[in-house]
Amino acid sequence: MLLSLSKHPPTEHSTDGVARGYRERMQVCLASTSPARLMLLRQAGIEPVTMSPGVDEDAVIAEVEAVEGRLEADRHVLLLARRKAADVASRLTEHDPGFDGIVIGGDSMFEIDGEILGKPYLPEVAARRWRAMRGRTGILHSGHSLIRLRPGASRTEAHAVAAASVTFAADMTDAEIDAYVASGEPLQVAGSFTIDSLGGPYIVRVDGDPSTVVGMSLSTVRRLAGDLGISWPDLWNRT
Please, where are the H alpha helices in 70-208? Predict the structure, then answer.
């Protein structure tokens, strides 16, 4: 399997090759290629390397549900977050045995009236969802998995689920829905909406950590890092 490890450098570099605006801190690997999760970490002062997890999400869920029955939303997202983090952690230690830091895995699902909504992929699915969600409230579940890797030491882990309720505008017109769906934005996101881009004006209320709705609860990640003995400022590598 091809290993893709991406580092997102700043725009300026010092003459000795060390990036300006960055400090040597504990390493962070984001087990995701989600632009939203990357943006959240950057806004919080962290510039991670990114690695795409080699996890077949549908197959993982189908395998577990075949034994245990239908998974609730919180178990669903936590299972996938843990699998993603574990996959990347295993490949990362093979690729870079000297990696000293944390791997962060995440997964999100939107639930409304007991129905779990993942990515719609198709425009007609997204449009149908938005017409059904107008004026209603659902819950965004976000699973988080942190794995601490240190050379010569056993890995340690911490996991948690965060949730935030989201209420949509009741007066969103069919024309607005069609225009939003035509933008393509809702097709690749859990629940068919975003809060940090074009979908934001159609959300009238959020109860809970707002970053949960974007894709990852920063307050939860901070707490889990603390559970692993890591002080949050030690992860800051952007200035």
Answer: 73-95, 123-133, 174-182
